[in-house]
Amino acid sequence: MTTKREFTAVYQKRGKWYIAWIEEIPGVNTQGRTKKEARENLKEALVLILEANRKLEKDKSRNSIRESLMVAVSL
User: Fold this and answer.
1) pTM over 0.85
2) Number of separate domains in the chain
């Protein structure tokens, strides 16, 4: 099953490079020579992290309970 979710990408220009990360998921970060390159790298990094986390959880415990969790966050 494939679903689409929205995340917050943050970009910072550092010298000749753009660094980028996903605000909601620690560890999803990358860089690129252009913002476009950084965006594409970030999409790839995000997909890889989400797939790896899903596989780790599936392998770890077949008795896991999954449910949606909504919280209010001040911006």
Assistant:
1) no
2) 1
